[in-house]
Amino acid sequence: MPLSLCAQRLKRANSQQLMNKGNVMAEETIFSKIIRREIPADIVYQDELVTAFRDISPQAPTHILIIPNILIPTVNDVTAEHELALGRMLTVAAKIAEQEGIAEDGYRLIMNCNRHGGQEVYHIHMHLLGGRVLGPMLTHKG
């Protein structure tokens, strides 16, 4: 399943990020600008640790991105000091799913890591998708 916000428009905005074999140098991302409200986004939740906003190219009736307010380029860069923000991402996902009316039927949470994982914006983020049957996560290709 192609994951939207990390596609079309944002791919261009994030092309300035420098990637060296597993080392991502990302001091500024499109998400940093959304957190600071420097560019428009449909923010559905924000506190001192995380920000959540609607994806600009949704892949499901509900498609929200939940991001830590601190820049963490990939899941591989997570340390113990990030535990509070990452835990908050999960509790916010559950809260938003309830508010969106998708909690009971179910929803999917997705995080991608690096190129083979499909990560295009090097600021970790979790996709919350729901509002319809989402089908299998991956097709069986070996």
CATH class reads Alpha Beta
Largest sheet: 5 strands, antiparallel
- Give the topology string: H per helix, E per strand: HEEHEEEHEHE
| Helicity, as a percent range | 10-25%
Number of domains: 1
Q: Name the CATH superfamily assignment.
A: HIT-like
- Summing up helix and strand content along with how strands pair, one would put the structural category as alpha+beta
Keywords: Hydrolase, Nucleotide-binding
Pfam families: HIT
GO molecular function, one term: hydrolase activity
Protein name: Purine nucleoside phosphoramidase
Describe the structure.
The protein is of the alpha+beta class and 142 residues long. The protein has one domain (8-130): 2-Layer Sandwich (HIT family, subunit A), CATH 3.30.428. Helix content is 23%, strand content 22%. The radius of gyration is 15 Å and the shape is globular. Mean pLDDT is 85; it is low at 1-26.
SSE arrangement:
Elements: H1 8-13, E1 18-20, E2 23-25, H2 30-35, E3 43-46, E4 50-54, E5 62-68, H3 83-99, E6 107-110, H4 114-117, E7 126-130
Antiparallel strand pairs: 1-2, 3-4, 4-5, 5-7, 6-7
